[in-house]
Structures are given as structure tokens and as C-alpha cells.
Amino acid sequence: MRALRLAVMLEQALEVGGGFQQPLNDMLWLRDWAAESGNEIVVYSPYPKTLEILKEFGVTARLLKFGALDHAYLFLKYCGPFDLVQITLELKSAFERTLIRDGIDVVHFTSTSKRHLLLNQLPFIITIFDGCHRDAPEFPEVRSFGEFERREILFGLASTKAAVVIVNAASLIDDLSRRYAMELDRAVCIPFSPSTYVTRSTPDAAADAAVLAKYRLEPGYLFYPAQFWPHKNHMTLLAALAHLRERGVSERLVLCGSDRGGRDKIDAAIRTYGLSDQISIVGFVESAELGALYRGASALVMPSYFGPTNLPPMEAWAVGTPVIYPEAFKAQAGDAAIPFDYDDPHSLADAIVSLRTEGTRERLAAAGQKRLAQFSEETKAGHREFARHLERLKHRLALTPR
């Protein structure tokens, strides 16, 4: 039986943060799977910078940008009647024609890509990180200007048409099945894993100090790595710090991440609360610096509204940094985080103070390592299941002409 030739699409830019790091983890596992199973992967990305990053890992990828014709095709796909024209004329997008010329059998989207709509002939695998446009539709980034409707189209078609659906939490399988009638046996749960940049970052006092000095930081700060979206809930964190200061507690906070339209409001709130001398906003940081920034922190504080899982807690656990995390995401954190109500600044302030209770840091570090080991075993089980699905596809596709 001939080898399966799998296209691996890395469509998220580095600046997206976890949306780039987790697909990178997935791609590295697929590279090892292909080498062990005698199959092939071909990695594609629309970003030249991603191709350069992949060279660090010994991976040669192909640049595949999406041109005007592909965007026009996507627009027409959102218009239902175009399907009739496509079927009648057997039209293929430029994107799909390129993949067919490259001998691709299956396309694996490592994020929830709209470009699965460009595929008419090739089967595909889709990754769905969350269903937050349904969980919290009040946020503009998942509601405004047709974004909610666009996601409904994508999620509905992707979860029912994909040969395999990759998710990071069992609860998401239930959500997709209930909301879109996804077939349960097509879903594979592969939990998030810490960024490979963090896991391969070993403690080095001099190197860590150099990273902190670069950003004019001293160890012992609260750390929140997140893009500046409204749903990341920086505002509750700022209000919590203001409450703490009223109680005579002054905590330093370091924020990093790219601006997605929420930075101005955050800057204004910092001025209103008078917190300018307590907060450092260092912008987007290099992936190789994340390990040092986590190690320099007294805790990761992550008040995000979106889940059910997130990458930063796992990265904090990997380096032994305590985690303060919403009660709503207890299914991910278990007892390895101090919980709080993400709608209540006082609750978050109390959680931050409780970090200083004797023995808490040690307890959280041990619980984090245990939690990480549990997720590692679940990830291995998910990879085994995914590999079985890939072998199933390989067998079935061998029965049809190429």
C-alpha cells in the first residue's frame, strides 16, 4: 500500500501566540508519526516567517499564500447557490488544485480554518479549539460584522464534513455533537501541550536574568501572556490590582502579547486606576523568551473568558510557576490552580493574596506537575487514536484512483 501524503496547514501567524504554538506541537508529532509509519507529510504556511521558524526544527515547509481567486471563491461559498454552479462545472479552487498537483491525499488543518471550504475533492481533517462564539456571544470579536454567522457556517460544515475532528477537551466533543450533529466517532481529543519553546527551555540564571533585564523587570511579578482582546479580561485583573492597593498590597504585573484592538482601553484603565508604576506592558515577545518570563513570575494570572482549555497554565506548570485561573475552567486545572470568579475583581484579588499562604506555592507546583503528567498520558492516547484514523483513511483512499 502506498504512503499516505498528508498536507499539514500552519495558517496561524506567530503573533497569535497559543494559536501558533499548539499547531507547531501538532506538526512536530505528525513529523515523527510519518517517519515511524512510512507515510509523508508536506507542511504549508502562508507566512515566510513560519517557514524560517520551522527550519529551526529541521522541517522544510512550502509557502502557500491565498490569492484573490481563493478569496473570491470563499465569498461565493458563503452564498449557498454557488454550490450548484460548483457541482455542475466541477470547479476546484486554486488552493485545491495546488494541493492535488503536489500529490496530497488528505489535508490536515491544525486550526479552525475557513479554507476547508475551498476543498471540493480532497478529504480533510479539522481542528476546533473552542466554541466560544456560542459560549460568550457578547464579545465583539466573535459577534460583530457577521463573525458569529461566519463561525456558524464554518463550525457546522467542518464538524460534519471532516473525516476527523481534533479537539482539546472532551466537553467540546459533546458541544459539537449537540450543536452541529457531529458524529462522535469522528472526534479525537488531544489535549493542549506546553509550547515546545517552553519545554526545551532549561533554567539558566544568567540567561533568564538577561531576558528580564531586556524588559527592565525584576522577578516576582504576576504574569499574563495574552493578546489584547476584550475576552482576555484584562480589565478584571486591573480592577483586582486596584482593590489590592486599597488593602495595602502592591502587586506588579507584566503583560505581553500583540494588540487586537483592546490595548487603548487597557491603557486608559491603567491611568484611571493609577497603576502605571505597577504594570509593565512588554508587547509581543520572542517564543524563546517565554520560559524565562514564566520562571521570573510569582504566578500566572489568567482571567480569560474563553476556554474550556488554555495553553498558558500548562506552560506555567511546566516550569513550576503557580497558576491563578477561573473556576469555570476547573476541568482543565483541577487542584493545580487557585480558582476565582472571572466576573468578580474582589474574588481575583483574594486569589492573588492567597498565593502568599504558607505552603501554597509548593502545593501548586506539585499539583501542576501531576496535572501535566496526566495530560501527557491523555495526549499520548489521543495521538494513538489519531494515528488509527490516519491509517483508516490511508486504507480507504487506496481503494480510489488518485
From TrEMBL:
SUPFAM superfamilies linked: UDP-Glycosyltransferase/glycogen phosphorylase
Any matching Pfam family: Glycos_transf_1
Listed InterPro entries: Glyco_trans_1
UniProt-listed PANTHER family: BLL6006 PROTEIN, GLYCOSYLTRANSFERASE WBBK-RELATED
Residue intervals of the Glycosyl transferase family domain: 218-370
CDD domains (UniProt xref): GT4_MtfB-like
Domain of life, per lineage: Bacteria
Record-given protein name: Glycosyltransferase family 1 protein
